[in-house]
Structure formats: C-alpha cells, structure tokens
C-alpha cells in the first residue's frame, strides 16, 4: 500500500486509516487489541481516535477508546513508533456535560484535553491533534442550514490556534487538523496561521461517502487550493452501504441484530437513520451487485479512488470486517459504474449530508 503526505506536514501515512470509535462500546478490549494488531500486520500505519469516544457517546465510556489504545501500546512495545496517531479534542458540549464544564471550548480546555488524551494513550506526543467539531455554531452532523441567531462563539479561531501552537512548541503535538469543518473555517484557520506564524492545519476530517457528498459542493476546492488533506470518515455510512439493512431496514424485528443503527436510538435520530438515506443506500447497493461487486466494495472503492481523499477512515467491529475493508483496496470502478453512481446522485442528491 502506498503512502500519502498530509497537507504541508511531514506526516506520511497509508491511504487507509483505522478508525476506533467502536472500541469500548460495540468492541471489547481484547477484540480491539486483535483489530489493532491485525491492522498493523496488514500494513496500516495510521489510527484515529478522539477523547469523546466510544460512540454512541455516554458518560460511562468517555475516554474508553483512548484507554484501550493506550493499553495496546503498553502491551506491544515498539508499536507506537511505527504508527501515526491522531486524536481529537471535543468541541463545545453537544449534550455531553461529562466532557467538560461549560458550553464552550476555551484555550485552557484544549490544553487540558490534550494532557488527558496523552495520559490515556500512554504516549508522549500526538502526531495529529484535531478539533472534533467547530467551536462556532455550524451546520454539522446532519444539519444543513447555518443560522447566525444560534451563534454562541466564545473563543476565537486565533485563540484556538495559539493554544494548539503552545502544544506544538511543547512537543506534545506534532501537527494539527480540523473535523466537521466548513470552507469558511478552513480558510480562517489557514489565514490566521500564516498571518501570525502559528501551526497550519494539515487535514480536515469530514464525512464523505456515496450518500453524503456535500464536501464536493465547494469544500473540496478550498482544501485543494490550500493544500489541506481530507480524511474521509463514514465511507460505509454507518453500515447502510454494506447492504445489511437492505431487507430488514433499521428498525423493527427484521433489522439486523447488533448493527449500530439498529441498536442505538441516538444514531437513528441522526442522518444515518433517515428513510431517504436508506432508500439511496439501497440504490447504490443494487448498482454494486449489478456490476459484480459487494456493496461494501463499491462504497470503499468510491472513497479509495477519489482525488479528494487522502486517507479513508474505516471503522470495524471484528478482524473479519477489517480484512474485508482492506481487501477492497485496489478495486477499480468502470466508467459505466461511475456514470451510474452520478445518475443516482443527480436524482437523490445527498440524503445523509
């Protein structure tokens, strides 16, 4: 598997990144460790986590994912040095008072969160430290409209950059990134970093998959022109693009037992639980089968081969799922298949945006 450079940083990583938000909720620690070991064995050298994980977020599992990864590092001497480690500081509380006191994300919050992550991860440095969602009020996680009346920003982007810059100077963070960001946010972070000689964002981690391609409505141009790399998350749309929900749907007695959307009401209330998202997914899944591919192969190959994507974040609950996702690397999509994808998007747009 080749390597890609993230933004203007010195980070070189595989174009597939192991996502870990299931560790500590759907995935117990022994299974998580087996997945981490198998991922490294298969050549993946990039893992992503966050302080708020596991997902769905609960007070009881806050920080559990980082702790599980830290324990794996402790039990596998030398593993940390072979990996690029990314984690995230949570933005303002979204109904999660256990993350921090208050509704904002101050400079002190960023520093305190970083220190806590370092401790849980049992490491001295975070290679890529990302802001999980903007401190500003923005449409994210399925919301599509910006409403200036909802703005409650307390910490400027400049202040956030200064806090992150202090962590870089202290050697606790190597590079910084954003997540769930907008074109405005990316431009401002880059502009202020260049104006004030502060760390420049290397990456943006945003949703990108067949049923959620809003990134192509302008953010991709922003990132291309500013040399900021995309880390695409949810390439399988929380399982909708694997075909597992095609027959039984996401609710009711015929829904697949143990699957994330079927199991957690909080997830069903978000974009992945929309009926039109499932309708679109079924269309893409049918298209995949018509071209001799599994739905997962099509969905993953779509991300693996798009110019917009530097690295695709895959989340799994078993070693078998990991191997399936990695085996999809190298799958090519014919011009006819790509045309079929665009016809569906033109008709149904981005129901899980």
From TrEMBL:
It comes from the Bacteria. One of its GO terms (molecular function) is oxidoreductase activity. InterPro entries: AKR (IPR020471), AKR_Detox_Biosynth (IPR050523), NAD(P)_OxRdtase_dom_sf (IPR036812), NADP_OxRdtase_dom (IPR023210). SUPFAM superfamilies: NAD(P)-linked oxidoreductase. The keyword Oxidoreductase applies. Pfam families: Aldo_ket_red. Keywords: Oxidoreductase. Gene3D superfamilies: NADP-dependent oxidoreductase domain. The keyword rRNA-binding does not apply. Residues 15-344 form the NADP-dependent oxidoreductase domain. This is Aldo/keto reductase. It comes from Xenophilus arseniciresistens.
């Amino acid at each position: 598997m080749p390597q890609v450079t993230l933004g203007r940083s010195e980070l070189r990583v595989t174009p597939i990144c192991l996502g870990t938000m299931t560790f500590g909720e759907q995935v117990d620690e022994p299974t998580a460790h087996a997945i981490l070991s198998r991922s490294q064995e298969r050549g993946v050298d990039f893992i992503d986590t966050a302080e708020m994980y596991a997902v769905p977020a609960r007070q009881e599992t806050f920080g559990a994912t980082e702790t599980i990864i830290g324990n794996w590092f402790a039990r596998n001497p030398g593993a940390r040095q072979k990996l690029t480690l990314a984690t995230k500081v949570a933005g303002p509380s979204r109904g999660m008072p256990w993350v921090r006191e208050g509704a904002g994300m101050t400079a002190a919050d960023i520093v305190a969160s970083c220190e806590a992550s370092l401790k849980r991860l049992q490491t001295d440095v975070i290679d890529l430290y990302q802001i999980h969602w903007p401190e500003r009020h923005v449409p994210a996680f399925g919301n599509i409209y910006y409403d200036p009346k909802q703005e409650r920003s307390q910490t400027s982007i400049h202040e956030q950059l200064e806090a992150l810059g202090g962590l870089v100077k202290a050697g606790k963070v190597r590079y910084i990134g954003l997540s769930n960001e907008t074109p405005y946010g990316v431009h401002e972070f880059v502009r202020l970093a260049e104006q004030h000689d502060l760390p420049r964002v290397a990456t943006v981690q945003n949703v990108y998959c067949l049923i959620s391609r809003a990134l192509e409505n302008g953010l991709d141009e922003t990132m291309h022109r500013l040399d900021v790399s995309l880390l695409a998350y949810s390439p399988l749309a929380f399982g909708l693009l694997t075909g597992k929900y095609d027959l039984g749907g996401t609710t009711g007695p015929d829904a697949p037992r143990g699957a994330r959307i079927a199991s957690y009401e909080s997830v069903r209330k978000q974009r992945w639980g929309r009926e039109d998202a499932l309708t679109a997914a079924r269309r893409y899944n049918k298209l995949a089968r018509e071209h001799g591919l599994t739905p997962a192969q099509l969905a993953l190959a779509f991300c693996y081969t798009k110019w917009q994507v530097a690295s695709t974040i895959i989340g799994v609950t078993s070693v078998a799922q990991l191997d399936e996702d990695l085996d999809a690397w190298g799958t090519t999509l014919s011009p006819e298949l790509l045309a079929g994808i665009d016809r569906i998007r033109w008709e149904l747009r981005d129901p899980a945006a």
